[in-house]
Amino acid sequence: MKGKxxxxxxxxxxxxxxxxxxxxxxxxxxxxQIATIGDVIHNPQVVQRLRQAGVQTAETVDxxxxxxxxxxxxxxxxxxPKRNQRAEDxxxxxxxxxxxxxxxxxxxxxxxxxxxxxxxxYGDAGHPEVRGILGWADTSRAVAAKHVEDLPWNAARGRTxxxxxxxxxxxxxxxxxTTKIVDEFLAFTRNLTDLVAREGGEIxxxxxxxxxxxxxxxxIERLSEQVDAILVIGGRKSSNTARLAEVARGHGVISYHxxxxxxxxxxxxxxxxxxxxxxxxxxxxxxxxGVIDHLAMHGYERPxxxxxxxxxxxxxxxxx
Length: 320
Ligand code: SF4
Fold this sequence. Notes:
The protein is α/β, with parallel strands linked by helices. It is built from ten helices and 13 strands.
């Protein structure tokens, strides 16, 4: 026996994604197909399975309508309220599977706007979740940014030396896309505080990174103390999987991003005794099982528990 396979104690589908898949599969039927607006999940095997269950994908509500769909679904990322309105205008029924943790951020953005804050959403400007949050904020006094250089300000409050320097307003609130890395969010907020909190400025920092994301990042930290290398499983286009690999490397452990067991290069494991496994939020359980089976066939001892799979139960949602 070479060594052990050690699983991260939180990995794979987050409960928000399990919940979305559950709701959409119940809604889609071969005789009444449903179109999700945008991908439910960045995983080709899952998309294929959903198609067979009567769940298709459309780019926009208008596309879904012109393709003859009667019902459309909002994915876990949520969407701007304008999308609901458009679906209603087109006579489509809407299945809203927005993750409740995203809904909380949308409501928070609205509340902060009412309190007079300029809103900064730390995240990817083109991501559907960020676009949805900005849609709910419904104000011109909001912006998405990943770096302070992306902000519309180039000088700290009280430090504008020329007309082309723009300082932030007095009240700024920062919230995060739910899937970001906590340390990077905090580094961003420190830089933003430097810009805002001088000369009477007020900054409000709301860490809205969701608990399942934080748990997965913390689980990698624990995993990295027990293993010599980590395989991070997830679609090549899955940015949260790529981020998990970054987090693992940040803890000083060799880590490889693989889509499935076929991507494993056995030269990676030559001097590796214990190998860790984690997976992105869009990685199905059977793909993770495939990697475990493959490593077991090559002499690694199987893990005793598959506890990560029991994380979600539609009837008993966790109280995050
Ligand atoms: S990553 Fe977090 S916010 Fe996004 S769907 Fe999963 S649980 Fe919900």
